[in-house]
Amino acid sequence: MTGGGADYCFECVGLASLVQEAYASCRKGWGKTIVLGVQKPGSQLSLSSFEVLHSGKTLTGALFGGVKAKSDLPLLLKRYIDNELQVDEFVTHEVKFQDINKAFELLMGGKCIRCVIWMDK
Questions:
Q1: How many domains does the chain have?
Q2: Taking the complete model, does pTM exceed 0.85, yes or no?
Q3: What is the β-pairing status of strands 8-11 and 32-35?
Q4: pLDDT for 9-21, tens place per residue?
Q5: N or C: which end of the chain has fewer CB within 10 A?
């Protein structure tokens, strides 16, 4: 279909088997697989060391979309304050600090997108 593989493959689900499929689908020589999904803690990924060494492909992760906190967060904050960046609709839950474990349960259970934790609510 692609005549040799895709230049870029993204794994967004969080399954090791799909990371392997995405990596296998990349073009030899310069294909790049970007892992965005997160599987359960302790999950293992298995790739052939020969394939990794000889394929010329790249496998990388992009935690939080690759944001660089020191340089990017001030710019994103300014865009938010200037109403250029809409993020409020992604906050689906708010909890008190003493209920922080509830926030983690919601996130790990896939029941919320983002949760704001209030220190004094």
A1: 2
A2: no
A3: parallel
A4: 999 888 888 999 9
A5: N
